[in-house]
Amino acid sequence: MSSLEPKIDPPAPGGSCPGATHEHGHALPILHEIRHALERLLAGGESTCIDLHSMPFGPGDLERLTAVLGSGEVQARVEALGPTLIRETAIPGVWLVDYRSLEDQRLSYQIEIAAIPEILRPRPEDLAESLGVLEARLAESGLDATPNASPPSS
Amino acid sequence: MRKRPDKTLGESLRDHGLSRRGFLKLCAATASLMALPPSMVPAIAAALEQARRPSVIWLSFQECTGCTESLTRAHAPTLEDLILDFISLDYHHTLQAASGDAAEEARFQAMEENKGRYLVIVDGSIPGPDANPGFSTVAGHSNYDILMETVEHAAAVIAVGTCAAFGGLPQARPNPTGAMSVMELVRDKPVINVPGCPPIPMVITGVVAHYLVFGRLPELDGYGRPLAFYGQSIHDRCYRRPFYDKGLFAESFDDEGAKQGWCLYRLGCKGPTTYNACATMKWNDGTSWPVEAGHPCLGCSEPKFWDAGGFYEPVSVPLTLGPTTLLGAGAAGAVVGGGLATLARKQRKEEAGARQPVTVDELEQKLSTTPP
Ligand code: SF4
Ligand code: SF4
After folding, report:
1. Which of A31, B48, B206, B212 is deepest in the core (most CB within 10 A)?
2. Confidence of residue B359 (pLDDT cuts 50, 70, 90)
3. DSSP string across B123-172
4. DSSP B84
């Protein structure tokens, strides 16, 4: 299961699952919540995260929600403690973030309303160390090892 | 398996080579697991960084191992994460490699080294102090003696599953083994009940994660259940609720209503009087849950659920409310529905003392008169 697409199961064949072909109306309140979150993002840059795991969705609700949100231009994958799949929706600033375990099972499924999803930004502590990492890799590479190399500018 | 909880969780995770993004992800998953909003992630990260893995002793008494089965199917976090990173599981006679004297020695050592700080998790009910101790023993000792000895210096006890929490199946009438729940026996320690037959795996790990993150026990309801998972009824979070509110009920398992996915109340759904997280956390990695599969909720996380009348009979309602009033109440919506549930719940509690066992004859008679 290495597809970047968060899994959207097709409707059950022949409606064998009771209510599978019916809508349960639980997508609409989430869409309203996204609207309010977008307004806050536009007004003051405040980002919001909605955990879809805790929603009382019936069969078809999640599919309906993701269908309305659509697909945007960006897809990303973070490899840390198993994959995390990030997909931009057709609405800029609204992202689907699918946290998966090492065994590729879903740990959490969230909607982030933000310029960039948090998991994609480098952690501030990592950023603080990045110059040091570059120096170390440079030293290791041997490219910098000539005796007459100019000293690093200060 | 044994690893002393001397490092903070942050240190131990870094030793495992976990990146900072990985840690952020762990915190996001943990928030989700504890039914906390994602805005809590920074606070959870700060707490998990400093947390120390508690020593856990798991005792199994009169049980079917379903609760351990449920936990080993937990995927968030996996059992390996839980054992290696979140807790130090020092004794679990089904899962541990050691057996016999070595196993019992591990229990004593964990108790000695972590006096006053270790957690005891119990699954299964216990033949009470007045019952024949021979009904259930481990290494020749009665369940009662082992429980009392182990909880003496524990920080808290977590009763996992309806048997440990409320007596469960062993305590169903006529309760031949004199089975009692943990909270009936342990009076001087905090007892957290995580009922369910079995409990949702993520709820078991969520309670342990809560203790780890906040260093204290979660807020509990009147039955000692964590409110984060048992604070709302199945009925309040059920996706079929709009049908209940409109008075649209399936009358049999294959009628048009059942096919349309209508409310299962008339088929015996105990959702209105049952407090559990199935409607949102679901089962089998979030795939589905009983009501979504077309079967009524049996009420497995409530006290006395085995003796609470037929699984396929509607929740008992006060006699003053006839079926017509009930239908009206259904149509009137959430407020009345909630009140009705409270009434039914109260009445059930009162009735619980006076219930009679059902004989095989009665059962057969019922089956032959009930339309298919
Ligand atoms: S009675 Fe059962 S099926 Fe009907 S709405 Fe309540 S929980 Fe859902
Ligand atoms: S739906 Fe009801 S009976 Fe089934 S597991 Fe959940 S609480 Fe127990």
Report:
1. B206
2. very low
3. ESBEE-TTS-GGGSEETTEEHHHHHHHHHTT-SEEEEEHHHHHH-HHHHS
4. I
Between B356 and B166, whose confidence is greater?
B166
Residues in A closer than 8 angstroms to B21, CB to CB, are 78, 80, 119, 123, 126
Chain B: nearest CA to A154, how far in angstroms? Answer: 30
Residue of chain A minimizing CA distance to B28: A108
pLDDT, position A102: 78
Neighbours of B83 (CB within 10 A): 18
Cα B167 to Cα B16: distance, rounded to the nearest angstrom: 40
CA atoms within 13 Å, Cβ hemisphere of B28: 29
Pick from A15, A106, A123: which is nearest to B21 by CB?
A123
For chain B, the average pLDDT equals 80
**pTM attached to this predicted model:** 0.77
CA–centroid distance, B268 to ligand 1, in Å, is 9
Q: Is the CB of B53 under 6 A from ligand 1?
A: no
Closest CA to A74 of A112, A36, A27, A38: A112
**Letter string b/e over residues B271-301, b meaning 16 or more CB atoms within 10 A of that residue's CB:** bbbbbbbbbbbbbebbeebbbbebbbbbbbb
Question: Residue B11: which residues within 8 A CB-CB, separation 6 or more?
Answer: none
Enumerate the residues of chain A whose CB falls inside 8 A of the CB of residue B32.
51, 53-54, 99, 107-108, 110
* Cα angle for residues A124, A127, A128 (degrees, 5° grid): 90
Q: Which atom of ligand 1 is nearest to the CA of B272?
A: 6
Which residues have C-beta atoms less than 6 Å from ligand 2?
B 196, 234, 274, 276, 278, 289-290, 297-301
Report d(CA B219, CA B302) in Å as an integer: 18
pLDDT at B370 > cutoff 80: no
Q: Of the ranges A6-15, A42-51, B72-81, which one carries the lowest mean pLDDT score?
A: A6-15
CA distance B273 to B235: 8
Highest mean pLDDT among A150-154, B200-204, B294-298: B294-298
- Nearest ligand 2 atom to the CA of B290 is 1
Which residue minimizes the CA distance to atom 6 of ligand 2? B278
**Interface touch A123/B20, C-beta < 8 Å:** yes
User: How large is the ipTM?
Assistant: 0.77
Contacts of A123 in chain B (CB under 8 A): 20-21, 24
Rounded Cα distance, B71 and B225, in Å: 18
Beta carbons within 8 Å of B147's beta carbon, 6+ residues apart: B59, B61, B122, B126, B182, B185, B186
Q: Which is nearest to B160 in space by CA: B201, B103, B110? A: B201
Query: What is the bridge-based pairing of β-strands B119-123 and B156-160?
Result: parallel
